[in-house]
Specification:
This protein is α/β, with parallel strands linked by helices and about 150 residues long. It has six helices and four strands. Helices cover about 45% and strands about 15% of the residues. The longest helix is centred in the first third of the chain and has 15 residues, at about 20-35. The chain is globular, with a radius of gyration of 15 Å. The protein starts with a helix and ends in a 13-residue tail after the last strand.
């Protein structure tokens, strides 16, 4: 493909110029620099996290789902804007707005018990949970490395 064709067919122009491994490593470094509690307040980090997570999503994903935590909603909103996928927020006892058979990506800032519990709720609603997809590992370190 020519550069013009690559640029015309990609959802993420940066990916044409910067290798995926480098983008993941840079995002990991930024997450370490700002700390686990501040990434969701940095639009540039959210944009890049969304682009990296979007590459990891299965192509047959129907919807995104997250918890009512503010960092989770910020991350999932960025990912939804990047991918065009609809999303649902599960907070308290509300039931996620899912269709039976949907393939639903579970999005959480941290890959921990919250992600597992959310996947269980998705499964109980008749949908197929995918993931979790997170920017931080359970120990709070960045999930993105080279």
């Amino acid at each position: 493909m020519s550069l013009d064709e690559d640029l015309a067919t990609t959802a993420d122009v940066t990916g044409v110029f910067v290798a995926a491994a480098r983008r993941r490593a840079e995002l990991g470094a930024d997450l370490r620099a700002v700390g686990a509690g501040a990434f969701a307040t940095r639009p540039s980090i959210l944009r890049r996290a969304a682009a990296v997570l979007a590459q990891d999503l299965p192509t047959a994903t129907d919807r995104l789902v997250t918890t009512g935590d503010t960092d989770a909603v910020a991350l999932t909103t960025a990912l939804a804007l990047h991918t065009g996928l609809p999303f649902a927020v599960v907070a308290g006892q509300n039931r996620p707005d899912l269709q039976r058979g949907d393939r639903v990506a579970v999005i959480t800032p941290v890959a921990d018990d919250t992600a597992a519990a959310l996947a269980d709720r998705v499964r109980a609603g008749g949908a197929e949970p995918l993931g979790p997809f997170s920017v931080l590992d359970a120990d709070g370190t960045p999930a993105f490395t080279a």
